[in-house]
Amino acid sequence: MEMTSVYINHATIYLEEKVIRDGSVLIEDGLITKVNSGEISSLPENTQVVDGTGLHLIPGFIDGHIHGANGADVMDATAEALDTIAAVLPEEGTTSFVATTITQAPEHVEAALKNTAAYNSKTGQAEMLGVHLEGPFIEKNKAGAQPLEYIMEPDLEQFKAWQQLSGNKIKTITMAPEHDRDGSFIDYLFGNGINVSAGHTDAGFSDMKEAVSLGVRQVTHLCNAMTGIHHRDIGVVGAAFFLEDLRAELIADGIHVSPEMLSLIFANMGSERLLLITDAMRAKCLKSGNYELGGQPVAVTEDRAVLPDGTLAGSILKMNEGAKQMLQLPGVTMRDILRMSAENPAKQLGLWERKGSIEVGKDADILLVNDELDIKYTICRGVIAFKEEQKK
Asked: Cα-Cα-Cα-Cα dihedral of 371, 351, 220, 100, to 10°?
């Protein structure tokens, strides 16, 4: 797609610190170049004008944990699979994502990492920000949908080799911190700028305090595949509530975490430390039926994906649907949604300088939505990637 200037006027613009009513934004060469209260008088030639009357202009969603969508999976290890995912995500308001692997045979993980190393995001699609390595350094008793036979102990040399294969694109790693017996694995990851996330873990609260002291700064899909709150040990869930250094991913579909628990989480953590994700698999955007995840059969119904034993196998959630679910909770505002879906993920991934908010100089990753968070326009790095009337 050819890069042109885009001018959005008469929108309610959500900046990090304030809201502009009836404001306007100018986008040039993929970046936000002007944000005004009122009209912008001088526009570049051939600027595309978008009427934002009655709409909220907000930063694009960042999905930090997604395996696949529309029939494709990161583990397919092809450029076509990543293109398929990146092309469909703007429909749900996702303007960038972290391609997530699953525990599998080393050669399959390596193929996926080599593919991400060679991949370049396309204009007019969601941008791939890097890789989320989910496993294989996890706890078997909390495997969830991760294949047991390929789980291994933390192996620093293995990680270094995989990071090299990925072209240094591994940004987040999900691991069971209790398996890092001497702390050297987490210490290395943290020291090298990796976002270390505790997940698929049987850690207790004391384990989590130690892990945070070493550099764990995130919890993977809070409440799922981890220790819950017990009155003698508040576990990983309690650690997420209690330890201020932790942010936590949240699959807000009302299935992985009940609406009542979503409310309890929000009451204890607020929007400042939550990260909305989808954990979606390849069946997202497709009909109900039989699919696979990590080489395992998955049955997909209208609202969920499960292994033959009933274990949840990722989700088919869309980012705007998760945001809608959260917006229905008592006390949750549009500002909270922006923190959880854009600001916090950008900061967690070390990308705040160019992502996560409406600010001059940042990437023009922008959504126009109505009061119910229906997506009207999605702009990815300055290009209109989706508008509602295009969907058939």
From this structure: 100
